[in-house]
Amino acid sequence: MTVFQDNICVNLDIFMFLQNNQCGEVLLSTSKGIYLQFPTKILQITSDSFGVTPIGLGLGRYEDFLTVLSPQPGDTVSIISGKIRFPKGDLIPKYTVSEDFPSPKAPHPQAIRHCAAQLAAACKPQSVAVLSAPLLLDTALTTEISPWCQKARPHLVRLLAALQESDFSSISKCVAALLGLGAGLTPSLDDVLLGILYGLLRLAPEQNNTRHLQTAIRGFAPEQTHAISAAYLSAVADGAAFSRLDDILRALGGEAPVDITQLMKIGSTSGSEMLLGLLLAANIMIQR
Hints:
- The protein is of the alpha+beta class.
- It is built from 12 helices and 8 strands.
- Strand 2 (about 20-30) and strand 3 form a beta hairpin.
- Helix 3 runs antiparallel to helix 12, helix 7 (about 190-205) packs antiparallel against helix 8 and helix 10 (about 245-250) crosses helix 12.
- The model has no long low-confidence stretch (mean pLDDT about 95).
């Protein structure tokens, strides 16, 4: 049997999950990620260039892994004490487990605006991130937004107001309206919600608005969106690390230059939409 050995970066909870025997299957195979489904968890194997992600196993040689073991949807997969077995061979990882990131410093208003300007200039026209212009820069949209983005915009505006006021009922209604909107495995508004939740959990974990959003997403995500997106949202709600978002938070607090390049590479538009959510969370914090 073929053996493929590589370095893998993971969150602590995923590392612990992989130390037990598990049986599942390959749910989906793409050039950017292989999704494995087990009875209690969905995992993604991807490139470590995306950093530590909430459900991800970041491989140093992801493309080589695809070539050597070529996992296909429906393939059985099993985990035996940290080793991952596919039909064509075993992935034997050398794990690097992410430590808890220190709490970021309070974001600077000018850093938020600078990052929002970068996002507005770099995001794709079809991305919800085009809303960074009116929501964060007080400037008009320069492009016509898509129909589902038009549908989402008023709910997103109401959500931001509800988060400012810690209005649990309104937060829940807005989350229910936004989850599942958009295209892809992680619909665009799911990515925005993920960014907002991640930012609030890192910047103000004990505040009521954070807890209200956390509760609403935990309650609605499993039923209202794709299983892969729900897995990401649930992992973030449980406190899993997302290192590329932490990079941005450190930059917003003045600890590093603002650089959105790596985050923008995630998915087709997912990275830009997560960044919009993160900036909206940071903006909420400076207005409270």
